[in-house]
Structure formats: C-alpha cells, structure tokens
Amino acid sequence: MRYDSLWRPCSASIICVGDMLFAFSLAEMTEYVPAEEVDGRYIRDETMIHWMRGKDDKPFRYVIKHALPTGRFFLQLYSPYSSTNWQVEFRQTKQCGLISQIPKIISAMRDAVPLIKKQQEEARVKAEARRIQWELDEKRYREQDRIRREKEAYNASLEELKAIMVQWAEDKRIEQFFHEAATDAAMLGEKQRIQVMERLQLARQLLSVDTAVERLLKWETPNEILIKREY
Predict the structure, then answer these.
(1) How far, in Å, are 7, 133, 144, 192, 225 from residue 137 at the CA level?
(2) Domain boundaries, the chain
C-alpha cells in the first residue's frame, strides 16, 4: 500500500546530474494483510495468510487486516522544480532489489534532463506572458482610473461654477434692491431716511454670506481639484 503524502517531504533529498537537480524519496512499502494484535502491536497472521492464499476469502466472516511493512522499499524520483511535473517510480520486489536497478535509475534521470528543461522553458514563457499581461492590465486600469478621476474633477468644478453663476445673478438682484432702496430713502424725511438706512444695514448683515465674487476666488479648476486630491 502506498500513501502519496510520504513521497514529497518538505525538505527533499537531492541528486545532482550535471546542472540538473533531482529529488528522491525512499520509503518502506506496506501491504494490507491479515494481522493479529500482540502486546499492543499488529503482526502478520501467517496462519490466516496461509489459509487464504490461493483461496476465496469470502467464507471468512471476519478477518482483521492491517497495513504492515513488507521489508521492501519504494523509490520515487521527481523534479523538485515547482514549474515541472516529472516523476518516476522504482519498486523493490522479491526478485529484484533497488540496488540492481541503479543503472535504470541513472538512465531515467539522464533521459529526463531534456524534458525537465523543456518544461522549465515552457513555464518561463508562460510566466513572462502572465507578467506582460499583468502590466497591460495594470496600465489599462491606471488609464481608466485617470479618466474617471479627471471626469469627476471636471464635473465637480463645473457644478461649482454653475452655482457661482446662479449666485452672481442673485447678488446683482440683491445689490439692485439695496441701491434702489437707498435712492428711494433719500427722498424721505430725515427721520424716516435714517430709519430706512438702519434697516438696510441690518438687512445687509443678515445676508452677509460669501458673494459670487468671493466664491469665484475660492473656485477650483478641474486641474486644481486633481492636484489637491493627489495630496
């Protein structure tokens, strides 16, 4: 039985072939066989294994089985480079040990060098394409953001300017009112004229807000709004 989590340790053992690195994992294989518990440990139930060998185990209603070590090893070679996916496996059998397979292991690594380099190059090309696409997307986003900010600044400046123009007409109407009221007051008697002028002074104080001219001095152009928002 094999568990994949065993074959890729966090710190891989490395074999160097020229300028290429190969990682390898070595683990003992297990097999799912009848077992019996002795002193808190499972051991092979040789009697049950002998009974079941070559026979249908269906007649046995209940057989305890457990994953136990076989004494044979499993070697997995794989590329440690994240951009590649090459791997190959070698298993020790009763007839063939791993040592006798060393020539095949060496040959497999040498044959894999061109493939791994090809995968690395393909990964490099894809990474470069992703980088270029990211830069294009980033440039497009910045351009869209610039257009949006300029449009917002233009609209804000224009709305304020329109409001100033409306107030400008209102200021002229108010000023005309005070001028004509003062002119009419001049034709009144001294006492009434003084009273009217005092009332006009109070009225001016009540309307003492920023005039259109004063607001125009504070008005910001679209470019001034953009510069201000950058800070």
Answers:
(1) 39, 6, 10, 76, 27
(2) 4-97, 146-230
Average pLDDT over residues 12-24: 84
Q: What is the pLDDT of residues 127-160, one digit of tens each?
A: 999 999 999 999 999 999 999 999 999 999 999 9
Distances 14 to 9, 17, 23, 76 between C-alpha atoms, Å:
12, 10, 5, 12
Contact 173, 211 (CB under 8 A): no
Contact by Cβ (8 Å): 79, 114: no
The predicted-structure confidence for 192-205, as pLDDT tens digits, reads as follows 888 888 888 888 88
What pLDDT digit, counting tens, does each position of 173-186 carry? 888 888 888 888 88
Q: Taking the alpha carbons of 201, 206, 211, 214 in that order, is the dihedral positive or negative?
A: positive
Could you give the 3-state DSSP secondary structure of residue 205? Answer: helix
Which helix (DSSP H) or strand (DSSP E) does residue 6 occupy?
Answer: none
For residue 93, the tally of other CB atoms under 10 A from its CB is: 10
CA-CA distance, 92 to 78, in Å (whole number)? 18
pTM for this entry: 0.55
> In a 3-state reduction of DSSP, which class is residue 175?
helix
Picking from 168, 86, 70, the residue whose alpha carbon sits closest to that of residue 119 is 86
- Ranges of H-type helices in 36-101: 46-52
Task: For residue 88, count other CB atoms closer than 10 A to its CB.
Answer: 17
B/e letters for 158-195, b = 16+ CB within 10 Å, e = fewer, are eebeeebeebeeebeeeeeeeeeeeeebeeeeeeeeee
- The pLDDT, as a whole number, for residue 129 is 96
